[in-house]
Amino acid sequence: QVQLQESGGGLVQPGGSLRLSCVASGRTLYTMGWFRQAPGKEREFVAAISWTGGTYTADSLKGRFTMSRDNAKNTMYLQMNSLKPEDTAVYHCAAFPKGPLSDPQGYDYWGQGTQVTVSS
Questions:
Q1: What is the chain's percent helix, strand, coil content, to nearest 5?
Q2: pLDDT tens digits for 64-104?
Q3: Bridge-partner residues for 55, per DSSP?
Q4: How many helical (H) and strand (E) elements, i.e. helices and strands, does the chain have?
């Protein structure tokens, strides 16, 4: 059984930065992803990363969001810079996609999420 635990969320002012972490336990994880969900909206793809570190980021977030991983620690990260109020959402990490990386329906495992609020 895989368990994913996110951390690092919080309240930040517009233009600020946060780094989210996702620690995985239970088995070796290969491709993993970050998604976010704002109130009243569908879950949205943020980024995905392969075991070797290759990344795929949503076009609208490129240049501000960067995903990375430390396989020795079974941890992946999401560095978020130049945050905007519209980035406010619960951010979830996910593992084992079975289809397109951007499709949340294809992921087998999910963390509980961490709240990110961007507000002055």
A1: 10, 50, 40
A2: 999 999 989 999 999 999 999 999 999 999 998 888 999 99
A3: 49
A4: 0, 11
The identity of residue 30, as a single letter, is Y
Q: pLDDT tens digits, residue range 93-120?
A: 999 888 899 999 999 999 999 999 999 9
Q: Residue 106's pLDDT is what?
A: 92
Beta bridge partners of 78: 20, 67
CB atoms within 10 A of CB 30: 13
| 3-state SS class at 26 | coil
Phi first, then psi: give them for residue 104, nearest 5 degrees: -65, -25
Structure tokens given for 53: 């570190």
Question: Which tokens sit at 87?
Answer: 């980035």
Alpha-carbon distances, residue 16 vs 34, 46, 47, 101, 118 (angstroms): 19, 18, 19, 27, 8
Q: Cα(17)–Cα(30) distance, rounded to whole angstroms?
A: 27
Q: Is 95 exposed, middle or buried (0-12, 13-18, 19+ CB in 10 A)?
A: buried
